[in-house]
Task: structure prediction
Amino acid sequence: MSQLHGTVAHVMRRFVPDKWGGTETVVFNLARELEKSGVASPIFCTDMFAKPGSEKINGVTVRRFRYCFPWFGLSEEAKMALRLKGGSPLSLSLFFALLFQKNLILIHTHVGRRLGGIARTVARIRKVPYVIHVHGGRHTVPQDQYDHMTAPVKGKFEWGKIFGLLFGSRRVFDDAAAVICVGQSEADEMKQRGKKNIHYLPNGVHVQRFSTATPQAFRKEYGLENRKFVLCLSRIDFQKNQLMLVKAFAEFRETHPDWKLVFIGSVSVEEYHRKILDEIARLNLQDSVLIIPGLKPDDPLLPSAYKAAEMFVLPTANEPFGIVILEAWAAGTPVIATRVGGIPGFTTDGENILLSEDNDAAMLTGKMEQLAGSPELQHKLRANGLAEVSAHYDWSAIAERVIRIYEEVLK
Result:
């Protein structure tokens, strides 16, 4: 049990199971582990894709509040794009709820900008410290992707800037008692920019949930009883670069005609989803590619999918960490990923993963063929990946490190 007494409030943009991503996975599992340790850890977020109010999800309280995107002249299409990816919402009801939260001892914000400014302001008024958790950010996003994310507000008047000034949004990092980064490269960059009290803290996974899963449930549900398949699990958008995997798989299929490619993930960018479907049709892969819109985080089919796959491939163009790699390791599934962001910092090429270069479909095909053709390599990656995740990345150990950071800033 922790020696902390009181409430640690987590602040984030949104929290809905059917729009689940890496940040939601981290916050939910962290809050759940903290609750097990006796630290009350409610989540405060907007009501994007949900109704305002409070609910309990597996022991974690989630409180959702009304919000707006503070720009004049936004179309409904633009608002939807901001909900799906990017956007800096404003929620005054969240501000007041956080301000009057009982027994508040610390705020843990998982977002910067306006919501981060709200966390900062409440912390100053309540005279409690706050910690900011960096799950990737502007400085890790390629320029073309950043331009796409900000396109909905280009040329629009941002009346919400006044609230950014009032809440001190530009000082969120400077005034934080600690900054937690999920990627070593992000932590190093923060230090180079002169930020203080920086902590590198990787994401975690409940190893037992994935290691004890069985493949039969997923195979039966999707008619894959007698098919080998490549799995890619991530939200569908430009950043995750599934289009490159489709192209690589088309070449791989020339020598492995019975294999299938399975995508699992919610659609963040419909335009990109359509491009993937068009490419699948162009390459005549309709019978070889399965797209599953997304599984809820507590769905038993999720670990079963990893367990059933012959290999897991993450073709991402930008990734501060890559929690799905940990999940694949925990399931004992060999992993191929692109050499981007924080991935090289916690993996070892040729030992627990095969790394391919970004936007090189031919190289990715080669890695897939290399892995498929070598039982010895498959066994090596399975064993080393499982050993690595078991030793360093179980959520119980990660939560203990977070509690130590809390205790340090509360002294």
